[in-house]
Amino acid sequence: MKNGSADLKTIRVIRQNHRFAVSEVDWFGERVFCKQSQPGVTGKYEILREANGLRTFNKLTRNFNDIPFSVPKLLYHDDVKILTQFINGWTPELADVPDDFFVQSFVQMDRYFRSQKRRRSRWSRQNKDGEYIWQKLERIISGFNLEVIPPEIFRDSLDFLRNNHSLCEARPMHADFTENNLLYDGDKYWLVDFESFRDDWPRWYDVVNFTYNREMERPKTAERMRNIRRLVIERLGEESTTQREIACIKIVRGLSLIIERMTLGGRNHAAIVPLDNALRQRIITSFTKLLPAR
Questions:
Q1: CA within 20 to 30 Å of 249's CA: 4, 147, 176, 282, which one?
Q2: What is the C-alpha R_g of the chain?
Q3: Contact in structure between 177 and 214 (CB atoms under 8 Å)
Q4: Which pLDDT belongs to residue 64?
Q5: 3-state DSSP helix/strand/coil % of the chain, to nearest 5
């Protein structure tokens, strides 16, 4: 059996940040991808999540032939690294990925993972620290000791999440389905980075995480993002709770963007670019549009 450390030779470092380094390596004469944690920042837990997420997704989609992308094979993992099938491709620019690819991906996965028995999402349960999602968000943002969002909007957004979270149906989700986690080999797309994959994310999380984040961070793409989201909803059929489910996810993503931009270079998804006033104002404006009138 191949050992993950023996005869592992780096060919080139592809990209790295404060959390991980991704390299092309030679592993017993085979070219593979190696994703390795950065000492002191990420460790066993993150690597294990990635390995389990990739393994679970491959298992769940074993008989799924309509999926418009492929997923690399998991080859090996230990406490500090994960080795996967090498894909001879590149990360595409958002402008180069057709809208229909994203629409088909979100729609086909939703249909495939649909269950006759409705399950509540992870937001309806307390985390390991005994907090619900709105309690965690309130604690972190209040801890900044800065008024990053007007108090009444902050309070109303948390109240909305508290009152409507149970509407969110659980579905398996990649939870970071973006162009940044795609590779294109000239023929097809490959989806990578399964660290956040779980089977209990809110149903609309992938499409909202992708479109809303870009509306906020790249306002020039806003019309395109809204159109992608609209097409996904049209093809799946809008239900009486759909817009409230989506609003819950927008609130979590908006507050999470603030937290990420206020937590530079730390663990998890901390940003490398600080929160600027333009982004903060776009998030606040989006909240005023989705929250019920006072």
A1: 147
A2: 20
A3: no
A4: 86
A5: 45, 20, 35
